[in-house]
Amino acid sequence: MGKVKGYNTGGTAIHEVGHWHGLLHVFENGCSPPGDAVADTPYCLRPDNDSCPTSRDSCPQQPGKDPISNWMGYSVDSCMSSFSHGQLLRAEQMWHRHRLPGG
Ligand SMILES: [Zn+2]
Question: Looking at CB atoms within 10 Å, which of 38, 75, 83, 87 has the fewest?
Answer without folding.
Answer: 83
